[in-house]
Task: structure prediction
Amino acid sequence: MRRTLSALLCLCLTLSACARTGGREPLRGSEYVLGTICTISLLDGGSEAALQAVFTRLREIEARMSANRDGTEIAAVNGAAGRSPVRVSPDTFFVVKKALEYARISNGAFDPSIGPIVKLWNIGLEGQRVPEDREIRDALPLVDWKSVVLDERASTVFLPRTGMRLDLGAIAKGYAADEAARILGERRVKAAIVDLGGNILVYGKKPDGSPWRVGVQNPFDDRGTYLGIVSMGAGTVVTSGIYERFFEQDGKRYHHILDTRTGRPVDSDIVSVTVIAPSSIDADGLSTTLFALGRERGLDLVRTLPGVEAVYVDARKRLYLSPGASKSFNLTDKAFTFAE
Ligand code: ADP
Ligand code: MG
Result:
């Protein structure tokens, strides 16, 4: 619910910015897909058919990559773990390959083979619970991105040990947003907002030529308010945080970004990380990666990635920005402060 509100808020913010400048009423569609509310708004060009083409594609991506549904390619790969490679579509192959790249650059803090641990906790899904220590101990050795075997020519993915499971939950929505943008381009849409549950991609140029303004979620606020605004050209803004999906038990909060070393929710004073980047698969992969890496290692990594900026928010409402982020990010909620 909170995610939905934030998503709507981001949307309202970007839309009102556009409305004020006299753009025509946008053509908009919303659908529950990829585990969240997805809203596409066409601000210049396009048609109902273009919207439908995007939603068809989002559903296709979900049908191929979800780890929580039967019959997907990822379910087939997981089902064949320890037995045989599984041939997958170029889509799924590309996303798995990207995910393994993030595993490599984060030294395994991000790991798409985290599936066995995700399944133990089931956070945000039915049956969420704190697993027994023993269960975590048994599952951890199965989290091992280095052992995943990709065969580019055969387009196959192989998990060498029984019980291994891929989970693309941290990156698939980003890919879906990039695909939405690609389809909008094919359909000659000139300006659009793609909002996949708060993962925002702004496409093209606003009709009045002014920069896009995208709200950054306030991770403390139930009502989906934003803490600041990113002014930008075409690109994407993705946030990962502990407020997105969690449950509470005995006064302790268990969130959905998991530490690949402990098999438990990442334990730090970070509450959210927002990534600004040209491509959404990168922004989505990175937002989770940066959360898992923590602030110092995360900002070190961002410095090596051209065109990528990040905003960390900690529990004391302090903001830590990558060097280039201050150019585009504007703090609007004065309850937050910039660290040093
Ligand atoms: P959301 O999907 O809620 O927007 P994220 O993009 O941060 O948030 O993805 C979180 C999801 O990623 C989790 O629900 C889980 O499926 C998966 N995940 C959790 N921890 C890790 C990790 N260390 N590496 C890779 N994927 C993870
Ligand atoms: Mg992510």
Summary: The radius of gyration is 19 Å. The pocket of magnesium ion (ligand 2) is lined by residues 170-171, 240, 284, 287-288 (CB under 6 Å). The chain has a mean pLDDT of 91. The longest strand covers residues 36-44.
